[in-house]
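> forwarded from #structure-qc
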C-alpha cells in the first residue's frame, strides 16, 4: 500500500513505542462531584498520556472524538497552531497509533480537520487504521455565514474523518424526526398502519422491467417512455397480492406507488455524510455556548459546538461506553459525553485544563443548562477526577520509581505480559490468568512483609495456587533454574524485565 513520506517519518513511527509510561497523579482539589466516578481529566501531553492509559484501557475505548490542531498557521491565545508540516505529521502519527490500540473492536475514531492538513491526515489514517476501516468523510458545514470577506473561495466546511477499529463497529441509525414521521399516512386504512408511497418507476429503460400493469379500474398502463418499472414482473405480482401497490384514492392513477410501512422500515434513518449547521451546530454557536458558560470571560478560540459531538456520540456510542478526547481544548467532548451518560477521559496539555475544562465540567455536574442540555434533558450529577502526568515508571537507568505502589506496577506488568488491561484489582500477588498462564507480582510486601518481595520456597508455598504455567515478577529469587523449570515457572526480574517504554 502506498504510504506518505516526510522528514523524520522514521522517528515518528518509533515514537509511540519510545514514549514512557508515567504515573497518574490525582489532584483532589481540582476533582469534583461523586468520588466514585470513573471520569478522568488529565493535564499533560497526550502522547505520554495515551501511553499511560494503555495498561488500564487498551481495547476498551468505544469512541475517540478528536479535534487536534488544524495547523492553520495561527497563534491562538491558548495554544499555538503553527507546526511545520512534517512536524505536524510526526505529532499526529504516533498519537493515532496509540488511539487505535486503545480502541475497542467495535469502537470508532472521529477526527475533525480542515483543508490545511485533511488530505495528508487521510493518508496516514488509511495506513494506521487500514483503508477497509474507513467509514466516512463527514462534511460538516462549520460556518453559518457566507464568508464574503474571504479573498478567494470561502471555506465554510470542516471534514470529520470516521474510521472503525474493525467490522464489529455498528453505527446507530439516526432517529426519525417528527417531520419525517408526519410524511407517513394511511389513506386506505391499511391494518398495517401508516405508510409512505415510493414511486415504482425508474428513469432508465430495462427490457425486463418494461411490461404492462392493469390498475384496479381495468386500465392497462406502461412505464413512461425511456423508463421502466422498479420491480421485475414476479415481484410486482407479489406486491399486488399483498396489497402493497397504491393506485391513488380513485384506483385509476397512471403510475403506481409502493407502500412502505412505518412499522416495517428500519428503526431510524441511515446517517448521511453532509451535516449542515442546522443539524450539527456551527463554530459561531460553539463560541456563543462558551461565552454563555463563562459569562463573557475566559473565551476559547476554537471550540466545537456541543451538537456536533452529540451527533457523533449518538452514532458511535451507548450509555456507559468510554469516550476519549486527547485534544480536549475547552472540554466540549467531555461535557457532551457526560450529559449523554457516557464515561469519559479527556487529555489537555495547556493551562486551560485548569482554567476551562475543570470549571466547565464542574458546571455540567451542577446541572449547567447550555449546549445540548435541553436536548438530553440534563439535570446534573456525576463527577470527575483530575490527574497530572507524574514521573515515568522507570528512570533512564531502568530503575523503578520508588513512588510506584503495588496497584500501578500490577496494571503495568499485567499489560506488558498480556496486552490486555487489568480491569479487576485485588490485594493478591496473583494478578490473573491469561490464556492458561497465571501472572504473579511480588512487590511492596504484598504478602505482608518485605521478605515476600523475594521468591523463596516459603513464599512460593504461600502463593495462590495455579495448575499450569506461571510467570512470577519479583526482585530476586533463591530458587535455582532446575526448580523453576520443575515448578513450571518463568521468573521475571524487577526492574530488568519491566518495560518502562
Ligand atoms: C482545536 S483545540 C480543541 C478544541 C475542542 N474541541 C473544544 O471544543 O474546545 C486543540 C487542543 O489540543 C491541545 N493539544 C495540542 N497538542 C496537544 C498535545 N500534544 N497533548 C495534549 N493536548 C494537545 C491544544 O492545547 C488545544 O487545546
Amino acid at each position: 500500500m502506498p504510504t506518505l513520506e516526510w522528514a523524520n517519518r522514521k522517528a515518528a513511527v518509533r515514537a509511540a513505542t519510545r514514549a514512557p509510561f508515567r504515573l497518574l497523579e490525582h489532584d483532589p482539589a481540582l476533582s469534583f462531584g461523586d468520588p466514585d466516578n470513573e471520569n478522568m481529566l488529565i493535564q499533560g501531553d497526550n502522547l505520554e498520556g495515551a501511553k499511560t492509559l494503555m495498561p488500564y484501557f487498551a481495547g476498551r475505548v468505544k469512541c475517540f472524538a478528536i479535534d487536534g490542531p488544524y495547523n492553520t498557521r495561527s497563534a491562538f491565545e491558548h495554544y499555538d497552531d503553527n507546526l511545520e508540516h512534517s512536524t505536524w505529521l510526526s505529532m499526529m502519527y504516533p498519537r493515532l497509533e496509540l488511539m487505535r490500540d486503545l480502541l475497542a473492536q467495535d469502537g470508532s475514531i472521529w477526527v475533525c480537520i480542515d483543508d490545511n492538513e485533511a488530505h495528508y491526515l487521510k493518508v496516514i489514517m488509511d495506513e494506521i487504521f487500514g483503508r477497509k476501516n474507513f467509514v466516512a468523510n463527514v462534511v460538516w458545514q462549520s460556518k453559518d455565514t457566507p464568508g464574503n470577506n474571504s479573498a478567494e473561495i470561502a471555506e465554510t466546511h470542516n471534514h470529520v474523518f470516521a474510521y472503525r477499529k474493525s467490522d464489529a463497529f455498528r453505527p446507530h441509525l439516526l432517529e426519525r424526526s417528527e417531520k419525517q414521521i408526519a410524511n407517513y399516512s394511511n389513506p386506505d386504512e391499511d391494518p398495517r398502519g401508516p405508510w409512505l408511497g415510493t414511486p415504482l418507476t425508474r428513469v432508465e429503460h430495462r427490457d425486463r422491467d418494461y411490461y404492462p400493469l392493469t390498475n384496479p379500474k381495468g386500465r392497462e398502463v406502461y412505464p413512461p417512455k425511456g423508463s421502466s418499472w422498479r420491480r421485475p414482473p414476479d415481484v410486482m405480482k407479489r406486491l399486488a397480492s399483498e396489497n402493497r401497490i397504491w393506485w391513488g384514492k380513485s384506483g385509476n392513477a397512471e403510475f403506481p406507488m409502493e407502500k412502505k410501512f412505518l412499522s416495517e422500515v428500519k428503526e431510524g434513518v441511515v446517517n448521511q455524510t453532509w451535516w449542515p449547521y442546522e443539524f450539527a451546530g456551527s463554530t459561531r454557536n460553539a463560541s456563543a455556548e462558551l461565552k454563555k458558560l463563562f459569562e463573557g470571560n475566559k473565551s476559547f478560540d476554537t471550540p466545537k459546538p456541543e451538537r456536533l459531538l452529540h451527533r457523533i456520540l449518538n452514532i458511535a456510542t451507548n450509555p456507559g461506553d468510554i469516550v476519549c478526547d486527547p485534544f480536549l481544548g475547552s472540554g466540549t467532548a467531555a461535557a457532551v459525553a457526560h450529559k449523554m451518560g457516557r464515561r469519559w477521559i479527556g487529555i489537555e496539555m495547556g493551562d486551560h485544563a485548569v482554567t476551562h475544562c475543570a470549571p466547565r465540567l464542574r458546571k455540567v455536574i451542577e446541572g449547567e443548562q447550555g449546549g445540548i442540555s435541553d436536548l438530553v434533558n440534563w439535570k446534573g450529577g456525576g463527577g470527575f477526577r483530575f490527574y497530572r502526568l507524574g514521573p515515568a515508571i522507570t528512570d533512564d537507568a531502568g530503575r523503578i520509581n520508588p513512588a510506584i505502589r503495588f496497584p500501578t506496577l500490577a496494571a503495568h506488568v499485567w499489560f506488558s505480559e498480556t496486552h490486555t488491561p487489568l480491569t479487576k484489582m485485588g490485594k493478591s500477588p496473583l494478578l490473573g490468568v491469561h490464556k492458561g498462564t497465571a501472572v504473579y507480582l511480588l512487590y511492596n510486601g504484598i504478602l505482608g512483609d518485605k521478605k515476600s518481595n523475594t521468591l523463596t520456597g516459603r513464599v512460593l508455598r504461600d502463593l495462590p495456587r495455579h495448575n499450569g504455567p506461571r510467570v512470577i515478577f519479583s526482585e530476586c529469587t533463591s530458587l535455582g533454574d532446575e526448580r523453576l523449570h520443575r515448578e513450571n515457572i518463568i521468573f521475571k526480574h524487577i526492574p530488568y524485565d519491566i518495560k518502562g517504554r
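QC bot note: Residues 85-102 form the longest helix (18 residues). The longest strand covers residues 103-113.
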